[in-house]
Amino acid sequence: MTQTVGVVNGRLSALGLLRLGLPMAGAMAAALAGHFAVLAVLARVGGDALYLRAVYVPLSLVYSAITAGLSMSMQAAAAQEVGAGNPEGVGRQLTGFLVGGLAASAVLGSVLAAGGSAVASLVGVGAADEPAFRAFILAMAPAMLFPVAGEVLAAALRGTGATGLGSAVGLTYLVIEIAGVYLLATVFGWGLMAVPAAVCAAGAAQCGLGVLLCRGRGVRMGRRMRPSAAGRLFLRIGAPVAISYVVLFALNLGYVRILAPFGPDAVAGFSLVYTLQTLIVVPGIGFGSAIAIVMNQARGAGRPEHAWRALRLGMSVTAAGYVLVVLTVVLGGQALLGGLAADPAVAEEARRAFGVIAPTWAFMGCMLTAVAVMEETGYGIAALAGNLLWAGVVLAVGWALTSEAATPVPLYRTMAVANVVGLVVGGPLGLLLLKRTAKAGRGRGDDR
């Protein structure tokens, strides 16, 4: 009989869920911590470096969409091949996903580089900063090829069961990137251009280590690719994840556009807070994936009582964890943000945004966890529709209230209220759907 993950002696435990969910959430948190660390270094450098990196954030989310979609698909493909007793198939899948990832990244980089002026206008960069921003985009285009490939290699390792080795590949990238940005920006004075140089070096090291570790696991890239199988798997698993990142891209782009009239200090200060928010709330998606894994396995095994308990227990653990994390962050965040930015105006804006938005991050974290469960248990369309509606309302109301204001505070208040309303209104509706699915045993999502 198949043993459901997290179930011990016939009973699902919070400890079992945590053992499954914390590594997944931790991997997402580690990657996001790298972005925050880079912004923190640039904040200490001063000048326009932090501002230009901040307005690039929406574009980086498009790269993240490609990376996240491909890595989750590759991980699932590797697990399926190993589970089917066909480990040599992992190499063929890996080749297909690497070729697809490199091609998609190259096309995206070329489009961004070719449309430099239009892209700068899209994110609200002024004429004075446009040459530096265009040079940054041009340098990032080839640099981003390496980390996309490196993450696919790490996903292949995780899919074969070598989660520790996969994490080591990702950690290698983070350490080299952060150290590289710090040395090049603060010691050698490269400023913003330290980022693409560090990304390139870190990604190359990540790829090299990934190839070596994959070979050690017997995973060798084959000449006979399986592009059709990789494409189908991406459409089924990776595409919903990628679309979620595209929604984040649109949301972040909207925020940058709303803040642009208030000047670079407002954009840079908000970017620090928004990156910290992402670091806090997005790992909830990883824990939501863990809940969904247990629910899907329990339903597939004909044990709906385990699926329903996984949902209730998982959301309870999520809520308790977020209350503790957000309380800790709120108590110490003001001092942290104030010490990061070299420019007092940027630090002041960061503290102002943090004071309004941060207390509601627990609501947003729980909401994202529930959305992740919905996406992976057969309600991806409903989750996407809810995300689009929520993002559209936030941007429309935030723009309307802020357009005539003297400060960006109305936007911050809109975001805070939306976090609370999103969970209070959307949460019960989502849980109602999930409850019906959990108690139905084999149902929606089993045939995906």
Automatic annotation (TrEMBL):
It comes from Thermostaphylospora chromogena. This is Probable multidrug resistance protein NorM. The chain crosses the membrane at residues 20-43, 55-73, 94-115, 135-157, 164-184, 190-213, 233-256, 276-298, 319-341, 353-374, 381-402, 414-434. Keywords: Membrane, Transmembrane, Transmembrane helix, Transport. One of its GO terms (cellular component) is plasma membrane. The keyword Membrane applies. One of its GO terms (molecular function) is antiporter activity. Multidrug efflux pump. It holds the Pfam family MatE. Belongs to the multi antimicrobial extrusion (MATE) (TC 2.A.66.1) family.
